[in-house]
Amino acid sequence: HAADLDALLAGLNEPQREAVVHGDGPLLILAGAGSGKTRVLTHRIAYLVGTGQARPDEILAITFTNKAAQEMRERVELLVGRRTRAMWVMTFHAACARILRADAHRLGYTRQFTIYDQADARRLVKRAIDELDVDPKRFTPGAIHHEISDAKNKLRDAEAYAQMVGSFFEQTVADVYKLYEAELHRMNAMDFDDLLVRTVNVLELFPEVRRRYAEAFRHVLVDEYQDTNHVQYRLLQLLTGGGADGRLADYGHRNLVVVGDDSQSIYGFRGADIRNILDFEDSYPDATVVKLEQNYRSTQTVLDAANAVIRNNRGQREKELWTDLGVGDPIKVRELDDEHAEARYVAGEIERLVDEGVSRSEIAVFYRTNAQSRVLEDTLVRAQIGYQVIGGTKFYERAEIKDAIAYLTMLVNPQDVVSFTRIANSPRRGIGQTSLSRVISWANTAGITIWDAALDPDSVPGLGTAARKAFHRFMGAMRILGERAAANPPVGELLREVLAESGYLEALEAERTIEAQGRIENLEELVNVAAEYDLSAENSDEGPSLAGFLQQIALVADADGRRDDEGLVTLMTLHNAKGLEYPIVFMIGLEEGVFPHQRAIEEGGLEEERRLAYVGITRAQRDLYLTYARARAVFGARSYAARSRFVDEVPMGLTDRSEQPAHGVGSVRARATTWGSPSPNLSPLGSGPIPGGGWDASGGSAGGGTELRLGDDVFHAAFGDGVVTGVEAGGIVVIRFSRDGSERKLVADLAPIEKR
Ligand code: ATP
Ligand code: MG
User: Fold this and answer.
1) Is the ipTM of this complex over 0.90?
2) Which residue out of 13, 71, 296 has the highest number of ligand 1 atoms within 8 Å of its CB and is therefore the one to mutate?
3) Of 292, 438, 639, 656, which one has the fewest beta carbons inside 10 Å?
């Protein structure tokens, strides 16, 4: 045991050790990224349990994301084994949900209360707006919901809010807030903010509950403390023995350890109050303060870049961070034509890295908003690179999406019993399990397709009258849809008809629930996906077809559940990346308006965006890529943006930049029309190699050919589909072919290549 503890402490530097062995009372660690704050927390938990100072179930450790909680649990488990099970290592929201399952009945909820996610909550707000006849153009549901959420996080209920109203907007919010709360309660539901607010309510209103939890958790530890907001602050106070009046109760222990970094405060938009950490010493004058200055995560180059960026914020506490991990490689800054080329570039680099022996699990791609992941996902699927999306929802796994796809599948494949089974009674139309089995076995017996068997239910032995009628009705609609499909209409249109004819949409609309409305929105997104497919397939040889669409979908959906030995590339938003680390990090979409986000630019949120950039950069252990696109689709329209200021804030000397100063430079041209015939007017290419980059060729003067750039999709007459993974001097392009995964160097102008 003693040996274990020695080993535990041996892996720490002096100030870290001081924090780990710290006795009772409040402790603050305010230190920069990668300095071992989270490590101190995990080691302290292990130390407390290992020395017998605390039982596992006396520990409450709070993190910000589920992923972080999972990692912390794993780290502690490595140190103390299975005893971690009794510990509460979780997010604020998860801890509160657990407390409320036990005690929310005191507030008039049942134990089975529903938790509404942000989208559900937003829809409920919208319903309240409709009911109150508020002009939705004047005040959007989003804006009102945000304001309500803000109030909740400040522990202002609808009544308190109404008393402080000072403008027409606030009056509107007050009305909506009141109705929204009543509706939530009536539906026995809570939104995310409620989880925290109701827990505080329970603890404030019921002294015995307050006492129970404060006595249960002898040690409370909080990671990422810079991102706590007022309600969370209050919660921690109550859980460590603060009374309803804010004074310490006689059972209070104040064993509160908080760690954080003011440079990483990124939840101000959600009411996080940076003062919670900066004023910790004021709230707890007897707090011990520990500073950590050695970074164990990143190369000096990565650290220098992060420090240079954050220095542009005013009022930042200067932190001295150093590392002995060496200078490392320069940061790769890459400019691409559009978001598709950007995604292909990322995929190409990942393939190259994996070829070099890097595991996919060592690679992460960060983006500013969730919506940016779809293009990337589609590209990774085509390149057959396994990936996982953290914190995102798996679109193609949702029931309504699978149903819609099953309908479409039936129209091209009348034998597909699985799809048939899925849709026969969805929506409900009186086709039971037994009748369905009868039809299926009849199809088998008679040697006909399930479609044909269902078309003629009168021939199916043992089928009751009601069931026969139901099949007639169902297949009547399917037959009409089948005829439509045979005419090969645009898939987007066909899908819309399927959703209408099958009664699927109608059934959802009739439900009139928040969840059903969410399903309808997802189906609308699927129609978008189909329309997008129609558009892109129009330019291909085969043209759009239902079968082609289904094949494309199947590939993407399949990758959703993919697991393999080489691990998965991790995709997530920058907000979700907090606290994590990866050897190789890509930050994509570094464009003004995307990151920094347009709203932040307009509403004075730049410093928070910059802290988000700091968070992203400091996740990288070894290699960091910053990419941006010259143009991207925004709401279906092309838009051009300048490179993000954050890219420019990284000193030139730390980077390996390859940008395209003007159109046509940094690309080569391939003859598209006359394959194999050399172009007479191809000028010598090449302007000297740029280390690590692939932009060192220029071919601005060649005419008539197809420009090839890094990331372009191409078709080669012999090798098939491929992606340009390199552009070299002398008109050489490197292309990776998807058929066999080979990478070949070709003379762009001579090779039979066509740009897709
Ligand atoms: P962030 O601010 O990003 O959350 P952090 O301060 O929590 O960072 P950690 O994640 O705890 O930092 O540590 C960063 C990395 O450095 C981890 O891989 C950790 O294991 C390692 N590390 C920290 N301290 C030491 C140490 N004394 N010896 C060896 N490795 C260490
Ligand atoms: Mg951490």
Assistant:
1) yes
2) 296
3) 639
